[in-house]
Amino acid sequence: MSEQQPVFTIEKIYLKDLSLEIPNAPQVFTEQEPPKIDIRLHNEVKTIDNGIYEVVLTATVTAKHNDKTAFLVEVAQAGIFQARDFQPQDLDAVVNVVCPKNLLPYARETVSAVLSRAGFPAVILPHVGFEAIYQQRLQEQQAQPQAGPPPVA
């Protein structure tokens, strides 16, 4: 009996959500010192149908001058991916490593373009080692004690 070869395709990439806040405008544009930039990434996976997944990579970039927010931009870059005939552990790696890796350049471009249009210097999202993050998460899950039956007294 022959085994099916795994299939991976990108069906659609789209911008799911975009938010920009500049709470201290116009005063923020008179600041002389560069702001402190904080970048956070988050990945979510949702099954749409058998072998079809929506993956959303959310990038949140916050810039602050001391305690005042210069800007906050949040981009939810999404994609619909087909991933069929993978072993369960391989499928988990595909949706948590391969899919966000494909979405990152789109999120990077959107963040940069939005901030430029808002009057700020572009912020370029750095390269992200999704594979290393995934491996670290697996190690943390394996290190957690497994809940077993209570000890017999």
Topology:
Blueprint: E1 7-21, E2 36-49, E3 52-65, E4 68-84, H1 88-117, H2 130-143
Antiparallel strand pairs: 1-4, 2-3, 3-4
Written description of the protein model:
The protein is α+β, with helices and mostly antiparallel strands. The chain has a single domain (7-142), classed as Bacterial Protein-export protein SecB (Roll). It is built from 2 helices and 4 strands; from the N terminus they run E-E-E-E-H-H. It has helices at 88-117, 130-143; strands at 7-21, 36-49, 52-65, 68-84. A 4-stranded antiparallel sheet has the order 1-4-3-2. The longest helix has 30 residues, at 88-117. The radius of gyration is 20 Å and the shape is elongated. The N and C termini lie far apart (51 Å). The mean pLDDT is 91.
Can you tell me the CATH class? Alpha Beta
The name CATH uses for the topology is Bacterial Protein-export protein SecB
Percent helix, as a range, is: 25-40%
- Helix-strand sequence: EEEEHH
Q: Which labels suit this protein?
A:
single chain; 153 residues; alpha+beta; Bacterial Protein-export protein SecB; 4-stranded antiparallel beta sheet; 4 strands
Give me a quick take on this structure.
Helix content is 29%, strand content 39%. With 153 residues, the protein is α+β, with helices and mostly antiparallel strands.
